[in-house]
Amino acid sequence: MEEDVIQSDYDFPEMTQWVENFENFLKVHEYFPTIEASAALTSMRSFNNHHVLPFYNNDSKQLIDFWVYGSPLVKGHLKGTDFTFSPKYKEFSLEPKAIDSTEFKIVRIKSEGTSEKSIFIDIKVRNFNKKDFLFKVLSLPEFWRNFHFLSRKRKDKGAIIHPAYNLNRTLNKFYTPNKKFTLSSLIGKNKQEIFQNIQSEAPLKVYINSFAMHLYFSMPGYALPLTMREQMWSAKETPAMTITLNENYFNLICIDYGKNAEENRKLLQEFSESFSNREQSFAQHFELGQYSGGHFLVTTAEEFAFVYETNMVELFDSLTKLDALTNI
Fold first, then answer.
1. CA neighbours within 13 Å on the CB side: how many for 205?
2. Given Cys at both, which of 9, 122, 223, 302 links 215, Cβ 3.0 to 4.6 Å?
3. What is the pLDDT of residues 104-154, one digit of tens each?
């Protein structure tokens, strides 16, 4: 990714910073390996295959028991940054453990559905700043578009051997790529087909623990999972922020912020202007013309919200336009 950023025809300051953060995260983990950093890195390997489990309670019990909670098929033992694996599993008696509140704050991700009253996962965020974190969450669709734009490769020039291949194969489904960049058989020819494909296939398969991975990935070293002991402690605490996933064919992401409606309005305006400026600069650089770029809104006086997949498609439409213009 560092090479991709350096060689890019367009400068993304946020992605340059992301590469630096990821490199620092890996260096720290090399010398001070932890369970939560290892779990985050394992989770980052794909959108859908490796996730930290939600908190185990009465509401989540049926779901998590289905995922064989407490009876792992293999046990990974961490020694330094190396793992050894064994089918043997030993039961542990665990006591809650508080996080270092001077370094981290808790963010809760919960699911709101007809039958899910209190299924949630907590993560810890280093150097938490409420406004900055809010803007990071709102910018997730933009992050994935930029990540894909920088890391995608032509099929005849190393797409399959690129480390981001599996991630890019999923992201490929959010627009109509040039045939030389097409990695998936399910490609919509226009926005209507793209939305239909996403509705039927749900390529991101967004759930609270997979959404947590999106935060680990986009904020490497800053957003981290909790150990089981830390999760036992945090479950009884009031989080610094709560993100609610309203699941349907497309996922409405709601972020609670504060009760001051005027402050929220100004924040939304600040974010929208910054986001719009970035998109206009990108579009002008590649002579893409006009496109909507996303739909952000405040749902109530206390929450910011956006439809995840819809914003992904609107932002990735810039790559559809780019591929149609360049015909590389």
1. 12
2. 223
3. 999 999 987 644 468 999 999 999 999 999 999 999 999 999 999 999 998
DSSP letters spanning 20-57: HHHHHHHHHHHHS--HHHHHHHHHTT-SSS--PPPP-S
Q: Report the distance separating Cα 298 and Cα 317, nearest Å.
A: 23
| Residue partners of 172: CB distance under 8 A and separation at least 6 | 148, 152, 181, 182, 183, 184, 187
Both structure tokens of 253? 């992401």
Pairing mode of beta strands 104-112, 241-246: parallel
140-151 and 13-31 helices, crossing angle to 10°: 90
Q: Which residues pair with 84 in a beta bridge?
A: 77
Tokens at 163, concatenated: 């480390």
- Give phi and psi for 306, each to the nearest 5: -155, 155
Separation between Cα atoms, residue 253 and residue 251, nearest integer Å? 6
Average pLDDT, stretch 86-96?
82
CA 191 to CA 269: how far, in whole Å?
A: 27
Q: Which residues are CB-contacts of 27 (< 8 A; sequence separation ≥ 6)?
A: none
Pair of tokens at residue 19: 């590469």
Which residues make Cβ contacts (< 8 Å) with residue 229, sequence separation at least 6? 94, 95, 96, 97
Would you list the domain boundaries of the chain?
A: 2-326
- Output the pLDDT for position 115: 47
Q: What is the pTM of this model?
A: 0.93
Share of the chain above pLDDT 90, in %: 65
CB neighbour burial string for 227-237, b if at least 16 within 10 angstroms, e if fewer: bbbbbbbbbee
Q: Which amino acid is at 46?
A: S
Please report, for residues 86, 90, 213, 281, the alpha-carbon distance to residue 75 in angstroms, rounded to integers and kept in the order given. Answer: 5, 9, 21, 49
Strand order in the sheet with 252-256: 223-225, 120-126, 104-112, 241-246, 252-256, 303-307, 296-298
